[in-house]
Amino acid sequence: MKLSKEAKELLREVIAAELPTEAERLSARAPETWLSAERSQMRDAIGHELARSGFDANWEPTARGRVLEDLIDVINRLGEARSSAS
C-alpha cells in the first residue's frame, strides 16, 4: 500500500487519538496485514476523525478531510483485495 508521508502521519495520529489501547499493535504492523475486524475498527476511527475535523463550515472536505477520505478508501481496497485473494 502506497501512502504519502502526510497520510502515514495522519493515520498514526488517528490511531493514537482514537484507539490508544491498540496504537502500539496497529502501528507496528503494515495495514496490509490488518485483519477484517482491525480494518473495520480503523474505518470507524478515521470516520470519527473525518466528522470531527475534516469539513469546513459549509461541510466541504478540507485538505485534511480529503486525506482522511483517501485513507478510508485505501482500507476498503485492502479488504476487497484480501477477500478476492481468499
Give an overview of the whole structure.
With 86 residues, the protein is mainly alpha-helical. The protein has one domain. It is 71% helix and 0% strand. The protein has four helices and no strands. The chain is globular and about 45 Å long. The mean pLDDT is 91.
> Which residues form runs of ≥5 with pLDDT under 50?
none
Return the domain count.
1
Give the proportion of residues in helices: over 70%
Fraction of residues in β-strands: under 5%
Query: Alpha-carbon distance between the termini?
Result: 18 Å
Characterize the biggest β-sheet: none
Q: What is the CA-atom radius of gyration, in angstroms?
A: 13 Å
| Helix-strand makeup class | mainly alpha
SSE sequence, one letter per element: HHHH
Overall strand count: 0
**How many helices in DSSP terms?**
4
Task: Estimate the global geometry from the Cα principal axes.
Answer: globular
User: What average pLDDT do the residues reach?
Assistant: 91
Summarize the structure in short.
The chain has 86 residues and is mostly helical.
Task: Write out key terms for the chains shown.
86 residues, mainly alpha, globular
Ordered list of secondary-structure elements with their pairings:
Blueprint: H1 5-18, H2 23-28, H3 36-53, H4 63-85
Helix pairs in contact: 1-3, 1-4, 3-4
